[in-house]
Design brief:
mainly alpha; 4 helices; 88 residues; elongated
Length: 88
């Protein structure tokens, strides 16, 4: 079973933000490890809340790639459907 820290590390790789925001990326990993720790439930909840906020900031910093952009994919699919309708 993968941990929250594993999932966060994978997402950071996918977002490609480790080089541009190394401090925030490390903070995210540290907070994720705190969430995984089965200790104090209050501390886990606080770490989870902070992790959510840090990840939101990191997602905003992530570079947008055309191949990863969901809006562009949806637009292409829409254009393909319209082209098929025009051709039919």
């Amino acid at each position: 079973m993968s941990t929250v820290a594993d999932k966060i590390a994978a997402e950071l790789e996918q977002l490609r933000v480790i080089e541009s925001a190394p401090g925030l990326a490390q903070l995210a990993i540290t907070l994720a490890a705190s969430v995984d720790d089965p200790g104090n439930a209050t501390a886990q909840a606080n770490a989870a809340r902070e992790l959510r906020a840090v990840m939101a900031d990191l997602r905003k910093l992530a570079p947008v790639g055309a191949e990863d952009d969901g809006v562009i994919k949806l637009s292409k699919r829409r254009e393909e459907r319209r082209a098929r309708r025009r051709g039919a």
